[in-house]
Design goal:
This protein is mainly α. The chain has a domain of 42 residues. The protein is built from two helices and no strands.
């Protein structure tokens, strides 16, 4: 199955949509390659990355431990 056409590209604009996309991505975690669910997961992943690059502070990586700033 080919990649989704550009018209199907997702763009996340709000924090609420970001949270919804994260939740959906988690539900699609076990999607098998080649399925519509897998392609949806890939599109969500790209949209989340784009949102994070545009809206989150530099160096912020969701789900990873913060680096200690030390005393």
């Amino acid at each position: 199955m080919p990649d989704a056409p550009a018209s199907d590209t997702l763009r996340i604009e709000t924090a609420e949509h970001y949270r919804e996309a994260v939740s959906e991505l988690q539900r699609l975690d076990s999607a098998r390659p080649g399925t519509p669910e897998f392609h949806r997961r890939q599109a969500l992943s790209a949209a989340l990355f784009d949102y994070e690059q545009r809206h989150l502070r530099p160096g912020y990586r969701p789900g990873r431990p913060r680096k200690s700033t030390g005393p």
